[in-house]
Task: inverse folding
Protein backbone atom coordinates (compact mmCIF):
# COMPACT_ATOMS: atom_id res chain seq x y z
CA UNK A 1 0.00 0.00 0.00
CA UNK A 2 1.28 3.45 -0.88
CA UNK A 3 2.19 5.60 2.10
CA UNK A 4 1.71 9.34 1.87
CA UNK A 5 4.97 11.27 1.74
CA UNK A 6 5.54 14.55 3.58
CA UNK A 7 4.83 16.38 0.31
CA UNK A 8 1.59 14.40 -0.14
CA UNK A 9 0.51 15.37 3.37
CA UNK A 10 1.39 19.03 2.74
CA UNK A 11 -0.70 19.04 -0.44
CA UNK A 12 -3.57 17.22 1.27
CA UNK A 13 -3.51 19.82 4.07
CA UNK A 14 -3.76 22.62 1.49
CA UNK A 15 -6.59 20.92 -0.39
CA UNK A 16 -8.51 19.84 2.70
CA UNK A 17 -7.58 21.82 5.82
CA UNK A 18 -10.75 20.39 7.39
CA UNK A 19 -8.90 17.12 7.86
CA UNK A 20 -6.52 18.94 10.26
CA UNK A 21 -3.52 16.69 9.83
CA UNK A 22 -5.45 13.43 9.58
CA UNK A 23 -3.75 11.11 7.15
CA UNK A 24 -6.26 8.30 7.18
CA UNK A 25 -9.87 7.30 7.69
CA UNK A 26 -9.02 5.73 11.06
CA UNK A 27 -5.95 5.75 13.31
CA UNK A 28 -3.19 3.69 11.77
CA UNK A 29 -4.78 3.53 8.31
CA UNK A 30 -3.14 6.02 5.98
CA UNK A 31 -4.93 7.28 2.92
CA UNK A 32 -3.47 5.75 -0.22
CA UNK A 33 -4.25 8.78 -2.36
CA UNK A 34 -4.53 12.55 -2.12
CA UNK A 35 -7.48 13.15 -4.44
CA UNK A 36 -9.97 10.51 -3.27
CA UNK A 37 -10.38 11.72 0.34
CA UNK A 38 -10.71 15.32 -0.87
CA UNK A 39 -13.36 14.24 -3.39
CA UNK A 40 -15.37 11.97 -1.11
CA UNK A 41 -14.87 13.34 2.39
CA UNK A 42 -14.46 17.09 2.07
CA UNK A 43 -15.57 18.75 -1.15
CA UNK A 44 -19.22 19.63 -1.46
CA UNK A 45 -19.42 19.71 -5.25
CA UNK A 46 -17.25 19.33 -8.34
CA UNK A 47 -16.83 23.11 -8.34
CA UNK A 48 -15.67 23.07 -4.71
CA UNK A 49 -13.29 20.22 -5.52
CA UNK A 50 -11.76 22.23 -8.38
CA UNK A 51 -11.60 25.47 -6.40
CA UNK A 52 -9.41 23.77 -3.81
CA UNK A 53 -6.69 23.29 -6.44
CA UNK A 54 -6.25 27.05 -6.80
CA UNK A 55 -4.48 26.82 -3.40
CA UNK A 56 -1.66 24.77 -4.91
CA UNK A 57 1.50 26.11 -6.48
CA UNK A 58 2.28 25.13 -10.06
CA UNK A 59 4.94 22.77 -8.72
CA UNK A 60 2.43 21.04 -6.43
CA UNK A 61 -0.13 20.78 -9.22
CA UNK A 62 2.54 19.38 -11.55
CA UNK A 63 3.36 16.78 -8.89
CA UNK A 64 -0.32 15.72 -8.78
CA UNK A 65 -0.55 15.55 -12.59
CA UNK A 66 2.63 13.50 -12.82
CA UNK A 67 1.28 11.07 -10.22
CA UNK A 68 -1.96 10.74 -12.20
CA UNK A 69 0.03 10.04 -15.37
CA UNK A 70 2.08 7.36 -13.57
CA UNK A 71 -1.09 5.77 -12.17
CA UNK A 72 -0.15 6.63 -8.59
CA UNK A 73 -3.27 8.77 -8.02
CA UNK A 74 -6.71 7.22 -8.46
CA UNK A 75 -8.91 9.43 -10.60
CA UNK A 76 -11.41 6.71 -11.55
CA UNK A 77 -12.82 6.67 -8.01
CA UNK A 78 -13.45 10.40 -7.74
CA UNK A 79 -17.01 11.62 -7.22
CA UNK A 80 -18.91 12.32 -10.42
CA UNK A 81 -17.76 15.50 -12.13
CA UNK A 82 -14.65 16.01 -9.97
CA UNK A 83 -12.13 14.79 -12.55
CA UNK A 84 -13.69 16.94 -15.29
CA UNK A 85 -13.43 20.03 -13.07
CA UNK A 86 -9.84 19.19 -12.12
CA UNK A 87 -8.97 18.76 -15.79
CA UNK A 88 -10.34 22.25 -16.51
CA UNK A 89 -8.06 23.73 -13.83
CA UNK A 90 -5.07 21.87 -15.27
CA UNK A 91 -5.95 23.00 -18.82
CA UNK A 92 -5.98 26.64 -17.70
CA UNK A 93 -2.78 26.53 -15.67
CA UNK A 94 -0.67 24.04 -17.62
CA UNK A 95 -2.12 23.17 -21.02
CA UNK A 96 0.81 20.94 -22.02
CA UNK A 97 0.24 18.71 -18.98
CA UNK A 98 -3.49 18.58 -19.72
CA UNK A 99 -2.77 17.14 -23.18
CA UNK A 100 -0.97 14.24 -21.52
CA UNK A 101 -3.97 13.56 -19.29
CA UNK A 102 -6.38 13.58 -22.21
CA UNK A 103 -4.21 11.14 -24.17
CA UNK A 104 -3.74 8.67 -21.33
Result:
Amino acid sequence: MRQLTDLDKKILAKLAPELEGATGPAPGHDFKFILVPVSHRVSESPEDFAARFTRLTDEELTYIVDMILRGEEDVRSLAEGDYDELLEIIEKRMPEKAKGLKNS
